[in-house]
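Re: your question from the hallway

Yes, I did run it. Sequences:
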Amino acid sequence: MTTYQVMRKMRQGMLFAVLFLLGTAVQAAGLLQPGDGSLPPLEIRDHQVNVVIEDGYAITSVEQVFHNPHGQDLEAHYSFPVPEHASVAELTLWIDGKPVTGEVLEREQAKQVYEEEKAAGRDAGITEKDSYKTFETRVSPVRAGQDTRIRLVYLQPAHIDTGIGRYVYPLEEGGVDEEKLAFWTANEKVTGNFSFDVQVRSGYPVDAVRMPNQPQAQITKIGDGEWKIHLGNRGSEMAAATANLEEGQQSLAAPTAAAFTLDQDLVVYWRHQEGLPGSVDLVAHKSQGKERGTFMLVVTPGDDLQPITEGRDWVFVLDISGSMQGKYATLADAVQRSLNKLRQDDRFRIVLFNNSSRELTSGFVNATPEAIARYSQSVAAVQPNSGTNLYAGLQLGLKSLDADRTSALVLVTDGVANVGETQQRKFIDLIKTKDVRLFTMVMGNSANRPMLEVMTKASNGFAVSMSNSDDVVGQLLAATSKATHEALHGVKLKISGIKTADTTPSEIGSLYRGQQLVLFGHYWGDGMADVELSGRISGQPTTYQTRFAFPAVATENPEVERLWAYASIEDTMAEINNFGEEADLKQSIVDLGVEYGLVTDYTAMVVMSDAAFNERGIERNNQKRLSVEAAAQQQRASRAAPSRRVDTQQPMYQKSRPSFSKGGGALDAWTLLLLLPLVWPVMRQRKNPQIS
Amino acid sequence: MVADCEKGVRQGGFWLPWRTLLLSCMATVMYLLLGPAPEALVFDRVAIAQGEWWRLITGHWVHSDLDHAVWDIGAFALMGFLFERRLGNHLLPILLLGSLGVNAWVWWGDPSLGYYCGLSGILNTMMAVGLMQLWRDSRHPLVLITGLGFVAKIMVELLGGQIALTSTAWPEVPEVHAVGLLCGMLYTWVVRDLLNKPVPVIPASAGIHANQGIGSRPAPG
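Structure:
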């Protein structure tokens, strides 16, 4: 090889390396390091995730070991996307081999405490929330040549849609924060043990569990409503493989010691048994001797909503900004499949937006197979680039709607408006200018989900999340099922016979086919309550009623308190995003965050040695709360998941729940009765073939 | 004699409808080994869209619970006894056409149906072809009455939205019976040219009448 060829190869290698770095810059969960290389990188040695999904919520525990292979002490900075409606409730740092749990303080105070501890060279950690985008955890110091162990725990609701539950462990960063992209690079490689264990524990029978795109996941049914999933790169797989080989069986998982990369979301689906009744479930927490309790009421409606038969107009408003690059194939696939689900008497328009908006179609197009094929190809051929002028896209989408036809606007975006109008209030005003339902498909983990959800709710529409790891067809099935059926609008829930307050969401809005209504609140006393759910279906008032008891004492689900608090905080944040940051609203979030130990936009969780907590006079409220929760979790783990259904005596719904429905045609006794007489002519003819 | 028996066994006959028996055994073993509605084999819309095409076939041979399996496999065995001799080598194409028809209906006719399993849809295809052949061969009034009975039963199922006397783990989809029946009628119409081909018949003394499938008309032994 000549010197010229060697130099050329080197240049090509450098170019690929630069492109690779650009391509992976902060596109995943991982340890951040300055892109200029001013600090050497740390390693993620272990990353072990344990998830328990039970009683309508998920508890995710992420235990990590960071390793510092260098000769100087360093700070670890771990970033991961904010999971849907999740709040960090625990940050534990192992100090001198002993786990110490963190406490929540007002954010600025927490940062100051952390910086002081860090400057003093003492062990400390902090977890903050970067708006709707990421949770950021910093730990200092990770000592030279040593390991540091931390645990993060977060809670989030985990509800069922059309008979299917969905849990996402978000790892894929959206790439929507350009400043961050420019500054940091992420080390997302787990060099040691990676494991992901999920327990699904349901009071209702679970028929199947699925982890798309992870064929090596081990899925085990433990009981009717209990399943376990395990995914990992070492350890238990090796043991399982060995055990299987000993038994002469084929191993389900191919054991591998390869480093695991935290760049792809892990999605778990679980499917409830077909034909379960519409139901009302109550999960409550009320300590002995306390007057006030907290509840989570989950209404799973029966299948009362009829299909919509009239032809409709669909306007697809598609985000083709640069941040959509990693998701655009999924978007194009989803749009093509959606177009294919339109009926002959439907019409559609397609609007694209990045820095500005333009229409791909020329006005409404009849949903003929030819038009669908043509525009599917056109959408797939688009190259995403530039910024996101969401407002311009919506504005163009809302133009030229036909007042005589029912219209729906399907917005597919990663939802970060950064060009043109970006104020949430303006978006809500815009969407309210037309009588149109907004159906939003939220792509990726870094979308401005709070804004999209508020906007969608304002139009009485619905939002569906979509990860690159999702079953696109499954998510579309859920969306199509909603868009093609009537909905219960103007939903109100009235509880009488027992005092309740602080319910959230304050406005419920609409319930689409397959959706559950989840209401948090406080109650006083105990005893029977009358519960009435009302709304309008196609303009007709509809009411559902039931009657059940609120418990005097309930100690199995203390986490409900935090879930209530976080749902209230989300309501308040929506107000702040609408009307601006007012001092009393901000203070109410700080108060709730500190009282319930939740990381919010205005609070952060800080951890340091027990002695440092004592010195600073910081009360260990979160430590106490965590010990109560740990005891309850241990108690729950020791028995099968119970049913939380409370309307068995007086069911709220007569029909069973909707589902993506599965079925089988079964033959029955009539079939056999009809066939049996034929034996005679058949036998007769076989004995004497001349008979005809 | 032995040769006659072998020929009869090979071609399908009265005492040993081997194709049906083989397939029934396969469905039974699948149920016993894999249990109800095995996740990897049922018709699963999402999985099929992702390329798991085998479900279009396997979905018909697995069942949602014991009742479902017993009724379907039992009816299949009885139909094999009644019709396999007439259907002969056409049995597999008939079952395949039934599978195609039911799959097409589930996929396009009921997009909200995400999962499907069971043999009954394609059994209606087999029954339709079998009954029409039996009627053509025997003109026995019982065949006509049975045929009309089946049509009436399917109408009742369609109007009532469920299948009488059956309660399986997965809800009933009565439309697949109608689709299966139509597929059977279509098959009979498409292969009508083959119906009139003469078929050699094994002497009655062997107790077995061989044939080459649809169109065979028992000849004097």
